[in-house]
Every structure is written in C-alpha cells, then in structure tokens.
UniProtKB/TrEMBL annotation, chain A:
Top-level class of the enzyme under EC nomenclature: ligase
GN (gene name): pheS
Lineage: Archaea, Methanobacteriati, Methanobacteriota, Stenosarchaea group, Methanomicrobia
Coiled coil: none
Reactions catalysed according to its record: tRNA(Phe) + L-phenylalanine + ATP = L-phenylalanyl-tRNA(Phe) + AMP + diphosphate + H(+)
Protein name from the UniProt record: Phenylalanine--tRNA ligase alpha subunit
TrEMBL record, chain B:
Record protein name field: Phenylalanine--tRNA ligase beta subunit
Species this protein is from: Methanofollis aquaemaris
Enzyme class: ligase
Family: Belongs to the phenylalanyl-tRNA synthetase beta subunit family. Type 2 subfamily.
Keywords, in A-Z order: Aminoacyl-tRNA synthetase, ATP-binding, Cytoplasm, Ligase, Magnesium, Metal-binding, Nucleotide-binding, Protein biosynthesis
Gene3D superfamilies cross-referenced by the UniProt entry: 3.30.56.10, Bira Bifunctional Protein, Domain 2, Phenylalanyl-trna Synthetase, Chain B, domain 3
GO BP terms: phenylalanyl-tRNA aminoacylation
Span of domain B5: 266-342
Catalytic reactions of this protein: tRNA(Phe) + L-phenylalanine + ATP = L-phenylalanyl-tRNA(Phe) + AMP + diphosphate + H(+)
Quaternary assembly: Tetramer of two alpha and two beta subunits.
Amino acid sequence: MADLTLNEKKFLVALAPLGEAGAGDLAAALGTTEEAAVQYANLCAEHGLAAVERLSTTTYTLTPEGEEYREHGLPERQIYESFADAISMKDLQAHPLSRIGIGWLRKKGWVAITKGVAEKTGEAPAGEDEIALADPKDGMPGIADLLKRNLVEEHEAVSYRVAITPEGRALVEAGLDLVEETGTLSREEIITGSWREAKLRRYSLETPPKRVYPGKVHPYQRIIDEVKRVLLDMGFVEMQGEIVQSAFWDFDALFQPQDHPAREMQDTFYLDRTEPMPEGWERVRDMHLCGGETTSTGWGGVWDEEVAQKCVLRTHTTPLSVQYLISHPNPPVKAFALGRVYRREAIDPTHLPEFEQLEGIVMDEGVSFRHLLGFLKEFYNRMGFDEVRFRPGYFPYTEPSVEPEVWVDGLGWVELGGAGIFRQEVTAPWGIETPVLAWGLGISRIAMLRLGLKDLRQLYRSDIEWLRESPAIRRQE
Amino acid sequence: MAVITLNYEYLERLVGTDKETILERMPLIGSDIERTFDDHVDVEFFPDRVDLYSTEGVARAMRGYLGIEEGLPEYEVTPSGIAFSVDPALASIRPHLGSAVIRNVNLDEAGIESLMALQESLHWALGRGRRKVAIGVHDLDTVTPPFRYLASPRDRKFVPLDFEDELSMEEILAEHPKGRDYARLVEEFERFPLIVDANDQVLSFPPIINGELTRVTTGTRNILLDCTGTDERAVRMAANIICTALAETGATIESVEIDGTPYPDLAPAERVVSVAECARLLGIDLTAEEMAALLRKMRFGAEALPDGKVRVLVPPYRADIMHDWDIFEDVAVAYGFDNFEAALPQTFTTGKEHPVAVLQREIRSVFTGMGYLEVMPFTLTSERVLYEQMRREPSPEVLRVAKPISEEQTVVRTEILPLLMEILEINCHRELPQRVFATGDVIRGTHTTQTVAAVSIHPGADFSEAYAMMETLCRECGVAAEFAESEDPAFIDGRRGDVLVDGKRVGVFGEIYPDVLTAFSLEHPVAALELDLTAVPGYPVRPDTP
C-alpha cells in the first residue's frame, strides 16, 4: 500500500461514513476548500482508494444581441414580416437589418430573388434556431447556429462526486494512523530532539522537483574560455586592442595591396573617420612600391596615403599582432588575440557581419615552417581534434601559407583556419628579423560544431530557454 | 576566388595521364575541388596563381608536379614584323599596352569558351575589374597592320561585339551591356581609348568592348592580342599568361613592335636564392641539388650553384613570385606538406591573460553567482534601438558605419543595456523571471572600452533590485562608488541612480521607464544597470596589448 499523506488519510476517514459525496460536502466535512478536497480525492483515486466522477453541466445565456432578437425576432424574421408578398431589392436593402438579414433570408429559402425583386416562397415556420433562442438549453439542435452567430454564450459548470472504493473502505476499517505529520523540521524540534518522536512526512520521487536554473556563463563564452585556456597553457600572452583601425594597420601593414578586393566597400565596414599615419609608415609605403630593402619587388603601381588613413572596423585581429610585435621586438614572443572582427556580409544562418576570430603569433629564433605545423597540430589536438592535415594556402601576408584541416566525424575534413609565416614585407619595415609564425581561426565554426547549432545567430541573439537548458558541462561525443 | 572549369578529356590529353591521378594530386598544389561532374570538374585556385586559371596552365603545373615534364617551359617568340603605336595622349588615361600575334591556333567551341573564361578570370584577378588590365583577342586576318592605340573623340562610331549597327563610343557606354558595366572606368575622360588598324577600322574600345569586325570564331587561325591598362606590370603579366596558355596548345607566338620595342618578352626572370635561407624558413635540410630538383618539379628553371645558392629561372607567367620566400613556398609545396615533420619549439614561455579579460571573467562569476544568465549580443546595432527606444539623446561619440547593410546595423554600440532590452524582447514568450547580463566592447569615438550591463524582468522587479545589484557589483569589483540621483530618461524619475567615481559618471541603474518597456514590447517591470569597466581599479590605462 502506497504511503498516504495525513490529508489523504483524513479525507478517506471523512468519506467512509458518507460512502459517496459531492466535493462541497467533503470540503465542509474536512474544513477545507473544494479544490483541496478534489485534490485529495484525485490522489486517493491514484491509489485506487476512491473513484472520482467529473460532472459537467452546460448552460447558455443570451448575449445582448441575442436578447434583442429574442424580443423582436431574428433579423431575417423581422425583415420577412416587414413586407407583404414581394418587395424590390432596393427597398429590401433599405431595411435597417438588411446587411445581416438578407443573407439568412436566402439561406433559409424564405424568399426567391429574381430580377431585383424578392418574393416570398411560402410559409416560413419558426426554425430550430428560433426555438432555441426563446429558451436555450443544452442539447437543443438550434444552439450551434446561435453560437456561431454570437447570440448565445456557453458556460460550463463542473462538479465532482467522489465514492469510496472497497479497497478504501477496507483501509479505513483497518484503522488509519492520523498522527499529525511534520513537513519542515523546526529549530525547536532539532535542538530538543523532539523530531525523534515526530512523524516525518515522506515525499515521493515520482513527483518531479521544480526546475531551478542557475546563472551561467554563455555556452559560446565557455568555448572561447576553453580556447584561451589552451593557448595560455601553451605559453601565449593575450593581446587586446582597438576595434577601430586605420586601413594602414588593417591592410597596408599586412602588405595587402591597395586595390585588393577585400579592401573594397562591399566587403569592409568603412567609417567616416581618418587616423594619422603612425611613425615609420614610409617604410610600409616603400615596401608596397618596391619591396623596400628585401628581395621583394613590391606591388609597384601607386600607394596612396589617403587610402591608408581611412578607418575601418577591423576585418581581422591581425593588426593587433603587428602592433604587438612592434612594441615587443625581442624574441621570444608568443601572443594571441581573440576578439570581434567585422565583414560587410548580410546576415544569414552561416554568415554574420561580426564574429570572433582567434589569432596567434610566435616569434622566435630558429622557428620554421615545421614549427608552425607543430603548433597548429598541438593546438587542434588540445581542442579535441585528433586528426589534422595541411594543405597549401594563400594569404597576402604569409609565405609559405597553409590551410589546416581537421577531421570531424560526419563532416569529413573541415577547414578551420589559415596560417603561415609573416612575409618579410610585413615584418621588415619594423626591423623585425626573427621569423614570425602566424595563424587565424574562426571560432564560431568550432562553436557551431560543438553546440550542434544550425544558425549562428543563436550565439548572439540567444533564446533564454536554450541558455537555461544548455548543460554547463558539455563533453564532446 | 576564381573557379576554373576543367574538361576531363582535354585535361587528360594535356597532362598525359588519367583524371583520377590528376584530381587526387591537384589539391596538393593549392586548389579546392568545388564540384565534380561526369565530364568536367570545377576547381577553385588561389587569387595569386593567375597562371592556373586555364586548363592549359593547370596541365602545365600538373605535368611538373606528377613528374611527367619538369623544369622551365620554354616559349619561342619570333618577330611578326607587325607594328603597334601608342598615342602619347593616352598617358593620363590608360597608357600601357601589351600585345602579341598568336598563330596557328585551332579553336573549337570549347576552346573559345575556355579562352573567354581565362580572359574573364584575369580581368577579375589581375585586372581588378578591368581597371588595371583589360584583354582583347582579335581575328588578325580581318584587319590590316600596322595598328594604332589612340585617344579618340567620344563620338567615334563602330559596331561593337554582339551588335549589328554602329554606335558611338558614348552610346556604347549607355546602351551596350558591357558599356554600362564598365562605363565608370572611362567616362570622366575627354577622349576614349581606341585600337584601329591601318585602314582606320576599329578593333577595340578598351576596356569596354571589342568591335564585331574582329570576332574570334572556330575559323580563326591567327590572333592579335591586346592588353591595355593602368599598371604596366599587370598588363605584361596578362599578355604573358594568355600567350603561354595558347602556346601550350601548339600555337606559335610572334612579337609585335610597340613603338619600336618587341613584345611580348617571354624570357624567364632570374633570381639567385640561398639554400640556407630556404632551409631555415622551412626547417628542412636540403642540398642545393635537392632544392633545384624540387623547383624544377614546380616548373622553374633551377640550377645548383657552388656557393650554397640556387639559380632560379622564373617562368614568365608566374605573377606571384615577388620575393625569395615565394620561391621557398614552392619548394615546400613540391616537398609535400605531408612530408614535413611537425616540431614544437624548445623556448620556454609563460602564458598571461589580458587584465581586461581577467576582469571580465571575474564579473561573469559575480553575475552568474547572482543567478544571471550571460548573453553575447551583437556590437552592430541601430540608433533606433540604442537611443530612440531608450528615450536617450544620441551620443556625440557614436560611430556610424559608412555603408550599412541594413537599418538594423548602422552604428557600433556605445552601450550594452539597449541590446539586453532587445534580448528580453526576443524572449518575451519565455518564463519569468529572466535575469541576463553581458560584458563586452563598446566604442565611443574610435576608442574601444568595455562595460557590463544587466537586466531583470519579472512582476516584482523594481528600483531596489537594481540598486542592490549595482551595489553588489561595485562592492565585488572594488569600485569606490558614490550613488546620486540620475537624470537618465531611460529610467523612471525617482527610481534611478548614477554611479560616480571621483565625481565622474561611470554607471547607471534603476527601474526602466514604462514607455521604454513598451517600445521593446515588454509587459513587466525591468530593473537594469550598466557600469563602465574603466572605473574598476586595475583597469589598464590603455586597454591595448599589455
């Protein structure tokens, strides 16, 4: 026999002498509300100790409009009686109720309309709707029409009758322990030890608890933190910097020619601002024009100072890398940045005009392309991608360039970033002679894979339900 | 990037091996196979390798990579005796001209299509939409040399390609589809570039359209090439790429005398590179001989010199070789990226989180501890959300983007709080209470700093909650704050406060003004705050790299 609460027991004890009763009587007998009585009844019913019968009665009242028609007749009836045998449509339409009534007249077949004249077809006996309208009661065939016409309103009244089952009666006859139960332990009970005598209420594990949602870091931020942790563990220093950069830092310092397609208005957010050239800009210009003092030919053509002064929302975090190298010219330098970058792209599920980019640089004596591959492999392995492969790539500011790819079950080889060694055209203007390994990675791609998202927008315009239900700990499968 | 269509049959014929071998190895020279079809494949090549924008060019590279034919491809150029003159009046318009005569071409429909595709790809990658370079190919046998490239009056008439009647050059810019596409390249000039023959017949109106007269057909045997533009190097490269691609099909190249100088010059450029520098960059031990062999695989001429150098002859079509390291990259590609042994450097370094990131991490822990969910809204937003709906005056420091994509993204946020109101709006059908916060970048002027904002929406949300929240935040962050009555119109008068540090306003909190709630379609009170993180002790003086 299931554990009964004290309330359920009291309920059974009250019900037993009555055998069968309405919820109101039971409530009165227990000195509680009807709702509570019904609740106890249902709980007892779950244990098979009582049977609950739900009785519902339906009543109808007339709406003000219905009230009006009961008195004067339905609109079609009023119109019908307003003329003798025939009437011209023009006159018929003059009737104040014509807009509602004429349709019904025709529908009920009370008149036939030919050549603009409405003629009565014969008798027009009172319909079921009219009978119901006079005194609406449950079960009348005319009610449905009246409900549709909004002339009556339906009211449902529910009552409950509860009967004790033989099992319930047997239980009561066997005697029920009606000692008061203790819910929450009081301070008094705890310190005096009186809880030992108390009857502690038992709770059921079958009743689910109320859900509690803790405050949480965003699932995407968690991934960002994890990426950062990997880099910090690998000995990298974090960089941060301005979102607004001059085209000089965003493009020119990275040896992107001034007519490079990525610099155009349709790909980059330009701002209505300019920034003066930094010290040393002439060496960057010379690099573009003729390769400075390196073995490079440069891009040739012209290089316009004004183009370089225009401000943009950074299109990548790489300007931070160059700025960091300038202020930290001595090896070893290992640094990373993880921040918003901007591309002038229309929003769709897989493209956004702003997203996070991860960027890393390693400047050290004796580092080479082999070390670049080593770093990338180590980084991706630590991010949980066991298989990494490398393919030739192209980026304007690295040489050699490489596109790392990782194996993702179900997707195959996925390209997750780009990498290379900074060109001398990038480093030489600032006197940096030690090789600089560099790589960039779109983090949102990883987030989509990890979080199983189909729409990137969910990261930035989050559904609170999704945030609440996303587990704090998410292991990769 | 340029997508090149490669017909299997033609590719197999040019490379001399089966398509499976070719397709399997092609990604190793730097390409992405976009889609494969029954009879052809679409492949994407990097924008620096314009020489791979034709089947002929790909075949040439693959023959080397697969070891079928190595070393420098040699192209013989004999004089055609044809002269071409350039009008000095073009100097400020479109001064550079490259040309060549290509004989014995044998083009079927597919061949013509392939040539047009190459031309289009070059217009895009080298020509930057025809501004730097535009290419014209003509049936040489329909015109009479010598040719003249001149600056013509704008009312000169001829029949443009795909038209039947004569149009003036001005009409072409207005009426011909290509004219409309490229008019902006020439329309401000008083005179237009024009190429005519000895009889004053029009070959071309560069960079807009050729004349119908010299249309190249399957019957064309001899081609006159013109490349015009504003960048001499790019013009030359375009001519070289077209000439060498056609030479790969068996055509012969003849030079044209442009103002007395023969053109094109398909002689390789020479570079002497250091084996040690290459080895240092790539991290592999190579002898000069080995390096030269790898370069020959990439179709360079290469010869080991005795003093640890390699003499490299760069084919005339390689636009990407600007620096010695570009040659070293080809060594790496020939060596095979798969064959590099990945290594980790030995130098010891320690990691360090940026102070601002540390601060933000701590703020996250304060708010999550108070039961708040983190959100990460966009930084691009609109003045409507940022100011109008918040009943605030636009900040004089707001940064507008020059050409916004939509009305929703016209400015960069100067505050985060309005973006949180928007998040509540998105979630208005979700269960209350909702408590969310965000910390991130804001831009004022051109300067990036960070703030934290938080909102709480539920039937009991009020000033006291906001005050308690702000007081907790300041206490946990060690902000020595004074609280004073605020005048921020986003909040209800008498239910709002400013945070002052050393007399400077660094934050605001309170109960959101009901009109602001309804502007965001919210139906319950909201307690809100925002604090400038620069007010937190320990915030770096400049948030630049440490």
